Amino acid sequence: MTRLSNAALLFIVCAGGADAQGLSGPSSVEAELEPGDGLTDPQYRSDFPRNVVPRWFGWKDRLAKGGFRFNFDYLALGQSTNADLGTGDAASGIARFYGNWQATDRGSLTFKIEHRHSYTDVAPQFLGLDGGALSITGTAFNDSGLLLTNLFWTQRADDGAWTLQVGQIDVTDFVDVYGLVSPYSGFQNLAFNTNPTINAPNPGLGIAGGLKLSSNLYAVASVADANADPSDPNFDVFNDGNLFKSLELGYTSSFDRIYFDNFHLTLWHADAADDGSRAEDYGAAFSAAWFVDNKWMPFLRAGAAKGTAALYERSVSAGVGYYGRNTDLAGLGLNWAEARGVDGDQFTLEAFYRFSISPGLQITPSFQFIENPLLNPAQSSVTLVGLRARIVF
Fold first, then answer.
1. Which of 106, 148, 162, 192 could join 156 via S-S bond, C-beta 3.0 to 4.6 A?
2. Under 8 Å CB-to-CB from 244, ≥6 apart: which residues?
């Protein structure tokens, strides 16, 4: 397959988030640096923790005026299940330091360093699998340790017509995303995050970019290291040439609402690993979401994969999100899935309510119900409850 060094000779461009943000979906650094959900006149319940350490936040505000923005945050997730297999409980945390330096009018450097750690023998990301459900029930909450998940340069056209990113990128920041995609602020089950039929790689070396095709149409593309390991960043992709490629064509009502009002089709391909640890995989995904009255976001998402590496061979998800002016967020989703080599269908329901005490403190209880867990046919259904918390400094 084509090596990244050759692919880099191609000018791959695509539209990403809002004009000023480039490729920045709801789980990206750009989105995490902006409080709220992009709604007008949000009403917060509290100013915590800004009111506790005002000098710290005042210093951050002064740096932001000079073009450097950053956050420290900590997230914790605990989950418990009634599965008759496995441990039954899981908990983990994520400590993150992330930010953006606006070095020039149209060029910026983005970074994110994380430490993911588990408090229990099984992390929430794998609690569903541990209990016999073919399901990632706590996306991103694992025990991966210290990770470099972002370190890339973004360059934009003066008129916002194109955006280009090069460096350590996370393709799940922009591949097949919609308003409720973030596992840090929205759904926790992978069925409602990045499409579970897409064999998306870990963050690693890549190039991505975008092009506005018209006032409403855009294209998004990426080429990234399919073998990436953010715990040990390297340039091995130049040697092995194992790549993940994606192309997305989409429609939005306007580019400042690209992840609120959006229809898109995503095509992707992942090379097999040379060591045989991962098979070749490819597929397509469709997503439709529309923000009604700046409150309701119904969505319909589907995907199909032709290989064995993605979690599901076929998947369809539908649901709705509700955004409150106090930046509370409620979500309800239902997923149907089939997996290659496993008989039967699996149905997943997730409901959550994100209670926003302030822009810097959120509490999210959640409920998941998995009918016909594919890896535990002796149990008809599995129930899982969770509690997620996030604090930002």
1. 106
2. 171, 199, 200, 201, 206, 222, 223, 224, 225, 226, 268, 269, 270, 271
Q: CA 286, CA 70: separation in Å to the nearest integer?
A: 33
For residue 45, CA distances in Å to 20, 48, 71, 182, 365 come to: 29, 9, 21, 22, 18
- Residue type at position 267: L
Residue 151 tokens, joined: 């370190």
Distance of CA 156 to the CA centre of its chain: 22
| Distance (Å, whole) CA 8 – CA 150 | 19
Q: What is the pTM of this model?
A: 0.91
pLDDT per residue over 30-50, tens digit each? Answer: 989 987 666 667 788 999 999
Dihedral over Cα of 272, 276, 278, 280: its sign:
positive
Backbone φ/ψ region at 59: left (φ over 0), alpha (ψ -120 to 50), beta: alpha
* Closest C-alpha to 186, from 69, 41, 297: 297
Q: Distance between CA 193 and CA 116 in Å, rounded?
A: 18
The 10s digit of each residue's pLDDT in 295-313 is 999 999 999 999 888 999 9
Asked if omega into 298 is within 30° of 0 (cis), the reply is no
- Cβ neighbours for 355, distance < 8 A, ≥ 6 positions apart: 328, 362, 363, 364, 365
Query: To which residue do tokens 């840090």 refer?
Result: 184
Q: Six-digit token pair at 284? A: 């397509």
d(CA 141, CA 122) in angstroms, rounded, equals 10
Positions of E strands within 235-380: 243-252, 262-270, 281-289, 296-305, 314-323, 329-338, 346-358, 361-371
Bridge-based pairing state of the strands 243-252 and 89-101: unpaired
CA atoms 202, 243, 211, 164: torsion sign = positive
Measure CA 202 to chain center. 11
